[in-house]
Specification:
Length: 678
């Protein structure tokens, strides 16, 4: 049952409120002229009357026995979107959109003309077993999805998106040529009043180069634009043929057709949602894009991540109060998670997306795009040049090293592989294979170790021992078998001492990397005994201990150079925007992305420089042991917190997350995890 039951629990179908609706018709198939007879042929609103288009779309929803709260409206000032024009209570249904006026990629792929065309221009996938039992994915030995023609005819954009764009384009051409009202006409009226040019995908080359210079988003936008042009050349002849065969146009201008298709693609990129609807076939091989849907009115809601203010979900029709009137299998229902007053925006969460994704896909960015735990949603890919097999570290700012240490370790070990001329060890060569998610989870737990809390944050000191065992060695750690854990500690200590005798041999360093526990490379499996013995090892090794840091210091020095070059490629003036956001939304959105990217790179640059200075102090003889050097550095990092001080917002909050306290937190974690120095 849908969670917002209070909105309709007292609904009595025998006493339904009257909305001047025509009599119920079981299915449109029983009456070919169903839609035209039902609502007539209303005239499209004026081109500049977005509110009238929204009201027409709302009336269409009600005509199809959907729901629209009487206090739902459209804000046409500033940041346009849905708003409350009167009180809306927590738990009330704000609107419910029937299936029959939604566009779905699955429906487009079932079209007798569009579906086969998309299949013929999709790259071959893994064959699937079919009815003839020969596992070839098709009948008579014909592989399903085999491309007809050259590689240039293979679609680059997701197949579901292209299919849906073709369907939306054809419907738009149909309505404009015949002036015929259809199910989706009010929705098209609403779409027609959008510019769909805020994403850098649709900017001209000069604007992209000017506003995104040095950003990885520049390449993302270029590729998106190139993919569109490629796919347009694939579909344009088919779209023209469809229009001519439907007697829509005797000859359709190419520029007009291209712009109609471009707007359809832009609408899908910026307004679509991804969801599996009841009755839609799914499989492991199905592309995510095949679950794309366009939902009128829902796509007018702006993005707001935390705290969530509304919830939307697809409700099977058997759970929908108006099911006796309804044509279709499901409805998209949005309910309030808080009380709304007049003028409040009605917003939904698009998901935990980075600003780079928000900018390229939707055309906007979010200042201080962070989660409640202090982790930024923004990720900056750092390419390590010259590494055999390639290497990219995904840099992310956070208050906790569970997010920030893994990319730092990944970058350092990629540089080591570059220096040694070897490719990244495959998972099969590791003594124990763990996934990236495993490592991140374990490092997140590590916060408790040096933060003074119990393992898992539950206050249970007993489970700390199990956590340490599981994190830092090969034993079970959670079965209460102390013998198992003692063997694990002994093995870890033995391996550590063995490495101490091989420190100056680069080949043995490579072997160490191949024997490591986790896929980041060079992150040794430490035990509590390792940490206790670190001082003894350093003091006993003398100059040998300093020699063990040579490779690490060289990697840190290389990483500093890479980070500085990458950061300085982003002009500082592009991180600021002092103009009117409404007048220049493009520059404002780009500036937020550029600032986030530059601050993230600066955060890792500061941490790497600080770690380099400490480690180099041992190599050059300023300190006898690494522990002594770390203590002399007087690292802070404790008590930084997850949230910025009250009143700190936007660029100031972003800068706070990249401040000295959080830099030192990462540096302390680096020496503790990588070198066993508490």
């Amino acid at each position: 049952m849908f969670m917002f039951e209070p909105g309709y629990k007292d609904f009595d179908p025998t006493k339904e409120e009257k909305r001047d609706r025509p009599p119920y018709i079981p299915t449109p198939d029983d009456d070919p002229d169903y839609h035209n007879r039902k609502v007539g042929r209303p005239k499209p609103p004026a081109e500049d009357d977005e509110l009238a288009a929204f009201e027409a779309c709302s009336r269409k929803i009600l005509d199809e026995f959907g729901e629209v709260h009487h206090n739902l409206g459209l804000n046409q000032k500033g940041n346009r979107g849905l708003c409350a024009v009167g009180p809306i209570k927590n738990g009330e249904i704000i609107f419910g959109i029937p299936e029959c006026i939604c566009y779905t990629a699955a429906g487009a792929l079932k079209d007798e003309r569009i579906g086969p065309f998309i299949d013929a221009h999709t790259a071959p996938s893994k064959p699937k077993r079919d009815t003839d039992g020969n596992n070839d994915g098709g009948e008579k030995g014909k592989v399903k999805g085999k491309v007809k023609g050259e590689a240039a005819s293979i679609l680059r954009m997701p197949r579901g998106d292209v299919a849906l764009a073709m369907r939306v384009t054809f419907d738009a051409l149909h309505m404009r040529s015949t002036i015929q009202y259809s199910t989706w006409a009010p929705y098209h009226w609403l779409l027609d009043r959008e510019d769909f040019d805020e994403s850098p995908t649709w900017w001209d080359d000069a604007t992209r180069e000017k506003l995104l210079k040095g950003s990885h988003v520049l390449e993302l936008a270029r590729k998106a634009a190139e993919d569109f042009e490629h796919d347009w050349n694939v579909v344009k002849d088919e779209l023209a043929d469809m229009a001519v065969e439907a007697k829509l146009y005797p000859l359709i201008p190419t520029d007009f057709l291209r712009e109609t298709f471009r707007r359809a693609v832009a609408a899908i990129h910026s307004r679509s949602f991804n969801a599996t609807v009841p009755g839609q076939e799914t499989s492991d091989a199905a592309e995510e894009s095949e679950h794309t849907i366009l939902v009128p009115v829902l796509d007018c809601a702006n993005h707001h991540r935390k705290p969530r203010e509304c919830r939307w979900e697809i409700v099977p029709i058997e759970n929908w109060a108006r099911r006796r009137h309804y044509i279709g299998k499901w409805s998209v229902v949005v309910g309030a998670l808080r009380d709304f007053d007049e003028g409040d925006p009605i917003r939904i969460a698009y998901g935990a997306r980075s600003n780079s994704e928000l900018l390229v896909r939707y055309g906007f960015t979010v200042p201080d795009n962070a989660e409640p735990d202090g982790s930024s949603n923004d990720v900056v890919p750092l390419h390590i040049p010259g590494v055999p097999g390639g290497a990219v570290a995904q840099l992310r700012v956070a208050s906790r090293p569970g997010y920030t240490y893994p990319p730092l370790a990944s970058a350092l070990d990629a540089i080591k592989r570059k220096r040694l001329g070897v490719e990244e060890p495959s998972p099969g060569e590791n003594t124990r294979v763990r996934t990236d998610d495993d490592i991140v989870g374990e490092l997140d737990e590590l916060d408790d170790w040096y933060g003074g809390n119990a393992g898992g944050g539950d206050g249970d000191d007993e489970d700390d021992e199990a956590m340490y065992a599981e994190m830092y060695g090969g034993g079970d750690g959670d079965d209460g078998d102390d013998g198992d854990d003692e063997a694990m500690y002994a093995e870890g200590t033995k391996a550590k001492r063995a490495r101490a005798g091989e420190k100056e041999d680069a080949v043995d360093v490579v072997d160490d990397m191949r024997r490591m526990d986790d896929p980041y490379g060079g992150v040794r499996s430490l035990t509590a005994d390792d940490v206790d013995e670190e001082d003894d090892d350093d003091e006993g090794a003398g100059g040998e201990a300093r020699g063990s840091l040579d490779v690490e210091v060289a990697a840190l020095r290389d990483l500093v150079a890479i980070l500085r070059e990458r950061r300085d490629a982003i002009p500082e003036e592009l991180t600021r925007h002092d103009g009117d956001d409404d007048a220049d939304r493009r520059a404002a959105a780009a500036a937020t992305q550029m600032l986030s990217e530059r601050l993230t790179l600066s955060f890792y640059l500061d941490a790497t420089e600080r770690a380099l200075a400490i480690a180099a102090g041992v190599v050059n003889g300023s300190h006898e042991t690494l522990r002594e050097a770390v203590r002399a550095a007087e690292l802070g990092g404790e008590g930084g917190g997850d949230a910025p001080p009250a009143g700190t917002e936007g660029a100031d909050a972003m800068a706070w997350r990249c401040g000295r306290s959080h830099v030192d937190t990462l540096v302390r974690a680096y020496f503790r995890i990588r070198h066993g120095v508490a």
